[in-house]
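3.2 Worked example (two chains)
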Amino acid sequence: MIQETAPWLSEAEAREVAEQAHAVARAVEQVILGKSDTVRLMIIGLLSGGHLLIEDIPGVGKTTLARAIAKAIGGQFRRIQFTPDLLPADVTGSVIYNQARGAFEFHPGPIFANIVLADEINRATPKTQSALLEAMEERTVSVEGESHPLPQPFLVIATQNNIEMVGTYPLPEAQMDRFFARASLGYPSPEVETQILEARQLQAPLEHLQPVLTPDQLMALQQQTRRLYVSPAVRRYIVDVVNATRRHPKVMLGASPRASIALMLGAQAHALLAGRHYTTPDDVQQMATPVLAHRLMLRSDTTSPTRAESIIREILSQVPVPIGGDTP
């Protein structure tokens, strides 16, 4: 049980962390125009230390958003283009015999980086998709019975085309559960699209984006975010919301305890960006849909995120909201 005498983040410390996080958001928004809400969700994912899934139709900027975030936070970056013929060893690496040394050596795959862009992840076969499971959860890769730790921090930013697109495979439930949150971009407004054309006419804004954090600074921000105060009442509210997904008549498989942890971390990061050093039920409500909806397995039409999102909204309207006791 968490002790209420824990070293919670002070108001001044929270403001300092929030300013650094907002600096990352401002850098990304130089490249991704008119999508402040999506960028904000991605920054919350960074603070929470969670892997992120960007799902939408082709051509709206999914890959550009992932690359912009990777550049803004610095560190080693690798891009993996997922295709139907991609093999698990192409992701994790393999053991190769070195004739000069007379021994087998492990050759790391592109998964060994701080930021890994898994582009069009659902175009690979389920076998290759599953190669990411251990890496995303344990931050290690096992090859030929030997475990290899991944660089820290380690973050997967995956892009996914709509499942109705030609040549796509649905992600397994176990892998969907390992993504902290799912985001989408959608078409820009005509005004924003005009700005995009103007910005891209002579140069690519992504090329001029400079890092605003180092990997070590990002890890420090993640640790600070976990120190944001979460009252017992808010923790219980998170459990009640997640538990309600398991009892809903339209849900075959509800959210897991991993989802509860993700929702708490997301609420902490959301409160931090809002300028507070404590969480409220509103933080939980704001993060419930992006954190929980993609984890639900519905009894029918499981490929429709809209139905899952409506279920989350229904649950939020029914679960009693705690009142008071938010501050430490």
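3.2.1 Second chain
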Amino acid sequence: MTHKVVHGYLIVVLLAALAAAQTAEQKTSKYLDSIRRQPSLLLAFVREVPKGGDLHNHLDGAIYAEDLIDFAASDNFCVDRTTSRLLGAPCDSCEHYTPKPAIRCAYDDHILYNQIIDAWSMRNWRPGDESGHDHFFATFDKFGPTSHNHVAEAVATVINRAAREHVQYVEFMHTADGGAARKLGMQLGWDGNNDFAKMRDKLLADGLKEITAATSKTLAEDDARARLELKCGTADAEPGCNVTVRYLYQVLRGLPREAVFAQIVLGFELASSDPRFVGLNLVMPEDWYVPIHDFHEHMAILDYLHGVYPKVHISLHAGEIAAGLVKPEDLTYHIRDSVERGHAERIGHGVDVMLEQDPIGLMKEMAARNVMVEINLTSNDQILGVSGDDHPLPIYMKYGVPVAISSDDEGVARSDMTHEYLRAVESYHLPYTELKHMTRQSIEHSFLPGQSLWAETKGSFRPVAACAADIVTEEKPTPNCEKFLAANERAREQWKLETAFAMFEKKF
């Protein structure tokens, strides 16, 4: 054997050894890099990636318009042919151009059917007389009367889709009391001295405890019906049965302050008494008059009630605004105040962070406090026109702020978690390791109870001592680790994610 042949043979052996030494994660990462310019293969890859948790998901907005039409038809609603708003009976006939046909007429009228879908979502929206912001938020008033009647079907539909996209955990934002707290707050009014303690006591004495119990009962019934819809526990169980579901009580911050106060108190009460509710969030467009005008008061309410209920988790919409949408001075404090005065552990959107006072200092503070940002790329583009290099996702990552991809209102946006992940990979050339890191953060920053599987998450994810000897694969954990997982729900969900990653990476 010549020296040249021997040298070539050694190179082949060395390359083979290096290839064998590559971890499954490294091979998966290499594969992703090899298909970045092949959109179809990239989509297929991203669809199969384990996606952990969806922490920013409005239940009403997650329902696709086609399902909403079915809900409305079963409720015998009519529809305004001009505005596509749902209306009560009596309805006109299905003849063309009647102003108020029954919505079931749309099944035999493709023009009406498509018109409703476009009006109830961002499908076919184009910039023009109506902004993306206005079209997006106007959808909810159009289909709202029926979505509230079909919570169980909505949950079943959305988590089934989530399961097929390899999402294992969802926190739904949901105003589950049907407006009862709002009505009670309006009846009792506002204390002229802003005495939050007195107002809370009055609410609890005059019916909020009963509303809390009734809301828990209703949600339990809805959850049971959703599982029945999915055939859970049978041989024909749908994929959604494997998705863990929790709820954030959704406060409507655009309401009068006495109604907002009552809803916030209800959110704290539910999260203190019902394990299905893991926290609360304040929603509705941040730029509307009441949310802007009452913002500081809302933060003061949260500050007070956080002292009363210190263990209740808070996630807040903040920074879902952009230059030109509000006055410049209203862009400078929402995220910081939500963290410092509102006690937010997670921020939803955070798009205008670079317009905040001392944005770099703020992000360093968020990193130090371990405050996560729920990233919603599609809705940020549709509502605010912010995408690509204008979006702060890479800046948050640069300064060590935890981030995770979420869906926001996937039905209205006509998106899903696969395409949110795809958008992140394509827009920011994210490596597989960063995608995996974000996904792990989604469960790490969930509001599930119990300790984390991870002792350290800022650099590499290092497991706690009880599971330090375990290699997380499809195999069962060691007895010591199994005992730890049994006692900590969040750690169990994280182990489930690691098992999913191990199975996914074996393919490469």
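3.3 Remarks
Residues 5-20 have pLDDT under 50 and may be disordered.
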